[in-house]
Amino acid sequence: MPVKVLAFAGSPRRHGNSETLLDWVLASMAEEPDVTVEKVPLTEADINPCRGCNACEKLNKCVQRDGMDTYHDRIVEAECIVLSSPIFCMGLCSQVKALVDRAQVFRSRKYVLKLPVVPPERIGKRMGVFLATAGQTWPHVFDAAVPSVKCFYHVIDIKDADIRYLMVNGVDEKGAIEHHATARSDAIKLGKTVIAEIKVRLGAGAGK
User: Fold this and answer.
1) 3-state helix, strand, coil in the chain (%, to 5)
2) pLDDT, tens digit (0-9, with 9 covering 90-100), for 26-46
3) Alpha carbon 92 to chain centroid distance?
4) Average pLDDT over residues 165-170
5) E strands of the chain, at which residues?
6) How confident is the model over 113-143, as pLDDT tens digits?
7) Are 29 and 35 in contact (CB under 8 A)?
8) What is the rounded distance in angstroms from the CA atom of residue 190 to the CA atom of residue 29?
């Protein structure tokens, strides 16, 4: 079964630690048959912050005309959505938070307008992946980012149980992740595991 992977590279610093981690995951996914991977650097995606106007509660779309015109549809179409972010001040970097906040359209569609986000037959077939890096070594450094990530996936009909995580701390300087003992191997394993699981889900759906 074909699998579309849509990945958002969130860091404002291109090819830093979080994007390197993302690239390892995507490369392992792309090695699998029938998998297409699209990586979107959010620094180039033209995604404005949410205005909080709630017009999407009536229009079923955002009043802003920017990159999200394209990515709303791609988010719905993909079998796997991957987010990567460095941790800034104990949370998601602003580029990723803007993407998360613009998912308000899906929240309005789902809870206010009572319309489907994805077709019912695709519920439970899709998966999300969150990748993060942090310079701090504190064990709680990722705690504030995870609820926002869960909210993003929840409004696009990816449940908590369908999200996979790889979060690496203690990597601050650009390129530090290259020297991490397990990050690369963990990323490769995660990519292959997620694709295998999605294919099982898609195959089960085809057999019904």
Assistant:
1) 45, 20, 35
2) 999 999 999 999 999 999 999
3) 12
4) 97
5) 3-9, 35-41, 80-88, 91-92, 127-133, 163-168
6) 999 999 999 999 999 999 999 999 998 999 9
7) yes
8) 9
Question: What pairs with residue 8 in β-bridges?
Answer: 40, 83
Question: Residues 194, 20, 38, 161: is their CA dihedral positive or negative?
Answer: positive
| Neighbouring residues of 145: CB distance < 8 A, sequence distance ≥ 6 | 85, 87, 90, 91, 92, 132
Q: CA 200 to CA 145: how far, in whole Å?
A: 29
- Give the pair of three-digit tokens for residue 192: 């292959």
Residue 179, both tokens? 């020297």
For residue 14, give the 3-state DSSP assignment. coil
CA distances from 20 to 38, 97, 99 (A): 15, 20, 20
Strand partners of residue 168: 133
In sequence order, which residues have a C-beta less than 8 Å from that of residue 147 and are 6 or more positions away? none
pTM beyond 0.90, yes or no: yes
Average pLDDT of the residues in 21-26: 98
Q: What angle do CA 82, 10, 179 make, to 5 degrees?
A: 85
Structure tokens at 87: 């941790």
- Spell out the residues 6+ positions from residue 84 whose beta carbon is closer than 8 angstroms to its own: 7, 8, 9, 10, 11, 18, 19, 21, 22, 96, 130, 131, 132
